[in-house]
Amino acid sequence: MPKMNLSHFEAAILFALFASVVLGVITKRTDAERLRYGVRCFAYFLAALLGLGWLMKLGHG
C-alpha cells in the first residue's frame, strides 16, 4: 500500500473536508440544508486555518 506524505496544511484541509461532511450529515434534515451547512463549515474551517496560520507567522517574526 502506498504511503501518503501530506504537509500540515494538506492534512488540515483534509480534516476540514471530512469534519464538514460529517457535521452537514448529522446536523441537518434535508439534502439542501446539509450541502449548504457543509460548505459553510468548510469555509469557516479554512478561514480559521488561514487566520491562525498568519497569526503564528506574525508571532514568530
N- and C-termini, Cα separation: 40 Å
Find the structural class using helix and strand composition: mainly alpha
Strand content: under 5%
Mean of all residue-level pLDDT scores: 94
Largest sheet: none
Task: Describe what you observe in this structure.
The protein is mainly α and 61 residues long. It has a domain at 20-60. The chain contains two helices and no strands. The mean pLDDT is 94.
Quick recap:
By secondary structure, this protein is mostly helical. The chain has helices spanning 8-27, 31-60. The chain has a domain at 20-60.
Features:
single chain; 61 residues; mainly alpha
How is this fold's topology laid out?
Layout: H1 8-27, H2 31-60
Helix pairs in contact: 1-2
